[in-house]
Every structure is written in structure tokens, then in C-alpha cells.
Amino acid sequence: MLKRERGEGKIGLIIFLALVGVIVFALVKIIPPKVNAGHMEDFCDELAVKWAMDPGYHRFSSKQIVQEIKRKAEELDVPLKTKNIRASKSSGSASIHIEYTESVDLIVYTYVVQVNHDAKGLRI
Question: What would the pLDDT profile of 89-109 be if each residue is shown by its tens digit?
Fold first, then answer.
């Protein structure tokens, strides 16, 4: 009976630690692009509301709003191209649309973070 209890659990521990390592690696690679996508969406939401309501932003043209979004994307290192940003304004409302994909290389698999967000701001 003592022979059975000698070190057979070590292989299970090694497999468990390898699995934990793979999960941690994947999370470290996936979480930053997901967080940046959330930041971009929040920024666009806030900018749309400001553009519709705030007198300081009210005079901004669509081109200036696109430049603000592009600047934020560069700050966050998000692969957002100018052609994938649309900003429009009508009386009392503002609309911003962003669309991009970011690939995350996980060695054996490529995870794609896809962002397709519409932000609306209404003047109250």
C-alpha cells in the first residue's frame, strides 16, 4: 500500500499548473483590448452628450469630433481608423458611430475583439 502513495499526484499538479498558466496567459492578452473597447464606448457616449448639450462642444463640427475620437483611440492604442468613425448632428441630438476589430494572438488561436458602437446625445 505504501508503493501506491509515492509521488503519483505530481503529474496531476503539473497538469493543473499548466492549465492555470494557459488561462492566466489568455486573460492577460484578452483583458486589455476589452477594457480599451469599454473606454472607447464610454468616451463616445460622453462626447455625444456633450456635443448635443454643452455650449463648449456645441460649436464643434463633425470633423472636429472625429479628430477627438481618433486622438482618444491613439491614446488607448486602439486600431480605429478615421473611415470607421461617423459623427453627425441635427437639431437637439448628436450621434457617433465607431466600428473596429482588434485581433489578439493567443499562439494557437486568434481571439477577435469586435466593437460596433452607437452613441447618442439628446439635448434636454
Answer: 988 899 999 999 999 999 999
The residues that bridge with 4 in the sheet, in sequence order, are none
What does the pLDDT average to over 15-27? 95
Give dist(CA 121, CA 124) in Å, integer.
9
Q: How far apart are CA 99 and CA 117, in angstroms?
A: 6
Spell out the SS3 assignment of the chain.
CCHHHCCCCHHHHHHHHHHHHHHHHHHHHHHHHHHHHHHHHHHHHHHHHHHHHCHHHHCCCHHHHHHHHHHHHHHCCCCCCHHHEEEEEECCEEEEEEEEEEEEECCCCEEEEEEEEEEEEECC
Of the candidates 40, 41, 55, 32, the one whose C-alpha atom is nearest the C-alpha of residue 123 is 55
Lowest mean pLDDT: which of 19-23, 41-45, 58-62, 118-122? 58-62
